[in-house]
């Protein structure tokens, strides 16, 4: 089972590791409290300053949006990072790596569907390149050296993975991983998997824009808000104050 537990649809009662900080509010026995604090001490992942990729994707002559699907732990934080990234036109939380029939939160949490919590990032290649997207992904969005977990969340559904839709995407990602490993910018080898994209399935509505809509939620405060701060600090030229959200894109035009 994924360690975060289950989520009741559209309710704030999220159990498991995502609610550890919330548990402090209601009070815990001393030993349980110490255990919770021990978990939280390992939760936040520091950002790593890394060089840009030597090999990148040239902007297409005719323009047009490009899409890449990225997995790196809980999709709340990954989506949030790219919603605040200039040049990204859409960032949607969802599932990739399994079938449409099993692309549901509770089923993915069984760790038997093959899915990873993922984010479909659509971007304007005239404003930001695929290489820059990957630099942000490896640097601030998640820790690419953690195998089948990110911080407090454990299981294959939290794996680090790039779901490529073309040979070019695969080649650029492979070259960048090799470049970063050769430069030893991380203290351990990168374990990010490169998987062909067979389908992306948007997550339930209550997962979309979670970081933007619930900035004071304990899990967000501790695990994901620092990622936004790191994006602003390390990639000031790509940071924007107003995030692009699924909620806004789904709003009927006037």
Describe the structure concisely.
With 254 residues, the chain is an alpha+beta fold.
Secondary structure blueprint with pairings:
Layout: H1 20-26, H2 30-41, E1 66-72, H3 75-83, E2 88-96, H4 105-108, E3 116-123, H5 130-141, E4 149-150, E5 153-154, E6 160-164, H6 167-183, E7 193-196, E8 200-202, H7 210-213, H8 218-234, H9 246-249
Parallel strand pairs: 6-7
Antiparallel strand pairs: 1-3, 1-6, 2-3, 2-8, 4-5
Structure, described:
The chain is of the alpha+beta class. The chain has a single domain (17-47, 64-249), classed as 2-Layer Sandwich (Peptide Methionine Sulfoxide Reductase, Chain A), CATH 3.30.1060.10. 34% of the residues lie in helices and 16% in strands. The chain contains nine helices and eight strands. The chain has a six-stranded mixed beta sheet with strand order 7-6-1-3-2-8. Strands 4-5 form a two-stranded antiparallel sheet. Helix 3 packs across helix 5 (130-141) and helix 3 runs parallel beside helix 8. The model is unreliable at 1-43 (pLDDT under 50).
């Amino acid at each position: 089972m994924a360690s975060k537990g289950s989520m009741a649809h559209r309710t704030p009662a999220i159990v498991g590791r995502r609610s550890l900080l919330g548990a402090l509010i209601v009070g815990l026995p001393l030993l349980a409290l110490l255990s919770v604090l021990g978990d939280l001490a390992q939760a936040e992942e520091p950002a790593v300053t890394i060089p840009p990729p030597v090999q990148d994707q040239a902007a297409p002559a005719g323009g047009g949006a490009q899409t890449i699907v990225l997995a790196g732990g809980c999709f709340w934080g990954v989506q949030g990072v790219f919603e605040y990234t200039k040049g990204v036109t859409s960032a949607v939380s969802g599932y990739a790596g399994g079938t449409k029939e099993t692309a549901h939160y509770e089923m993915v949490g069984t760790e038997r569907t093959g899915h990873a919590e993922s984010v479909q990032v659509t971007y304007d290649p005239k404003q930001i390149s695929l290489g820059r997207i990957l630099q942000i992904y490896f640097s601030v969005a998640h820790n690419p050296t953690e195998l089948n977990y990110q911080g407090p969340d454990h299981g294959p559904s939290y794996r680090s993975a790039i779901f490529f839709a073309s040979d070019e995407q695969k080649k650029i990602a492979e070259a960048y991983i090799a470049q970063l490993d050769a430069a030893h910018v991380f203290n351990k080898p990168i374990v990010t998997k490169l998987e062909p994209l067979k389908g992306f399935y948007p997550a339930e509505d209550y997962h979309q824009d979670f970081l933007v809509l619930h900035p004071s939620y304990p899990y967000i405060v501790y695990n994901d808000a620092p990622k936004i701060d790191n994006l602003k600090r390390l990639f000031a030229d790509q940071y924007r104050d107003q995030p692009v959200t699924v909620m806004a894109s789904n709003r009927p035009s006037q």
